[in-house]
Design brief:
The chain has about 350 residues and is α/β, with parallel strands linked by helices. The protein folds into 2 domains: about 160 residues, P-loop containing nucleotide triphosphate hydrolases (Rossmann fold, 3-Layer(aba) Sandwich), CATH 3.40.50; about 110 residues, no CATH class. Helices cover about 30% and strands about 25% of the residues. It has 12 helices and 12 strands. The strands form 2 sheets. The protein has an 8-stranded mixed beta sheet, sandwiched between helices. Strand 4 and strand 5 form a beta hairpin. It is globular, with a radius of gyration of 22 Å. The chain binds adenosine-5'-diphosphate and magnesium ion. The site of magnesium ion has 2 residues, from helix 2.
């Protein structure tokens, strides 16, 4: 009988098929005296529950702006166009009051220097109590969850009575991560969360983060300029350049079959233990374009060794190459556009 499934279950199934986050043609600009800085330029992407997406690119390519825009934490920037649908609701049109309710329990952001968010006058234990009480999560089991998380993040329980300044930078960052996870948010935006730490501290924290993401089945946008980190913890990667996504696909495909000349250059530049210097120097010279004058053609044209006239005059589309491991592999480059194949004697390899 078709009506044997209760309606509520059917609704739940539909909800779970929907991407958790769906960004459509998002344009974000910072108005400045000389005009506008277009930091996010027609970005579209979608993220399913349980996915960990790496958002990768050089400094200044719009990664943080994209993260801030999702949570409406943009300072001085404004959304010019597009939608950010989170569980089906457009965040762009939400009021500050509405989005405030989502920050923490629904969507949470961890920053590079998040420890600044800790209150120097409050003991660590009080940070947890305050966070849980503010979001009405203070119940009989709450403290047990705090202790489990502290244990998982290797923060000794005996240190709950200490103040933030008594901890190292790495420990403070772990406390912030525990405070983020205690509310069990549906989406976590981690913006270079380990970058400010010492290399060894960074490595250990990354390892713990990787384990926690798996154990808690977290949905994460992991922002980084470090492809090594991406290889470690993500299952999908979006390559950003000059505010645009130039390539997106599952992590295996991006590393095994990178298609955009920029992605290839980034992967070639990953330091390799054997010939670190040589690899570093192989990176394509030049700079990203000035975002005060958004490029009218391909944004990578000035650095691309394969560029043709068309790349200087027209904007390439984000083309779907293949569907693998349940994920679309797409690339924004004329080399892969059937209409212009004849212009490129050989593919970028
Ligand atoms: N408040 C601001 N006012 C003007 N321009 C800004 C502001 N914040 C960022 N930008 C510019 O926006 C671009 C993207 O910056 P950002 O999102 O911080 O990049 P990323 O996180 O990839 O390093 C850069 O060109 C940066 O200079
Ligand atoms: Mg940034």
């Amino acid at each position: 009988m078709t009506n044997s499934i209760p309606l509520s279950v059917k609704k739940m199934e539909n909800r779970n098929n929907q991407p958790l986050l769906e960004i459509n043609n998002l344009i974000v600009e910072y108005p400045i005296k000389e005009g506008n800085v277009r930091a996010v330029d027609e970005v579209s992407l979608s993220l399913n529950r349980g996915e960990v997406m790496g958002l990768v690119g050089e400094s200044g390519c719009g990664k943080s702006t994209l993260g801030f825009t999702i949570l409406k934490l943009l300072k001085g920037g404004t959304v010019r166009a597009g939608e950010i649908n989170f569980t089906g609701t457009n965040l762009v049109s939400m009021t500050e009051e509405e989005i405030q309710k989502l920050r923490g329990p629904e969507i949470s952001m961890i920053f590079q220097a998040s420890q600044n968010a800790l209150n120097p006058l409050q003991k660590v234990s009080n940070h947890f109590i305050d966070t849980l009480k503010t979001h009405n999560r203070w119940d009989d089991n709450a403290w047990q969850s705090v202790l489990a998380l502290l244990n998982r993040l290797e923060i000794p329980e005996s240190r709950l009575k200490d103040y933030p300044f008594q901890f190292s930078g790495g420990m403070q960052q772990r406390i912030v991560i525990a405070l983020t996870l205690i509310l069990n948010p549906k989406l976590i935006i981690a913006d270079e969360p380990t970058t400010a730490l010492d290399v060894l501290v960074q490595a250990r924290l990354l390892e713990i983060l990787k384990e926690i993401i798996k154990e808690y089945n977290l949905t994460v946008i992991y922002i980084t300029h470090d492809l090594g980190v991406v290889a470690e913890i993500t299952n999908r990667v979006a390559i950003m350049y000059a505010g645009q996504i130039l390539e997106i696909g599952d992590t295996q495909t991006i590393f095994g079959n990178a298609s955009h000349p920029y992605t290839k250059a980034l992967i070639d530049a990953i330091p390799n233990v054997k010939d670190e210097e040589k690899k570093k120097m192989s990176f394509i010279p030049g700079h990203p374009p000035d975002l005060r004058n958004p490029p009218i053609a391909c944004c990578f044209v000035d650095r691309c060794p394969y560029n043709k006239d068309i790349c200087h005059s027209e904007k390439p589309l984000l083309l779907d190459l293949e569907f693998k491991n349940g994920t679309q592999h797409s690339v924004k480059c004329f080399i892969y556009d059937d209409r212009y194949q004849h212009l490129f004697s050989k593919k970028a390899d």
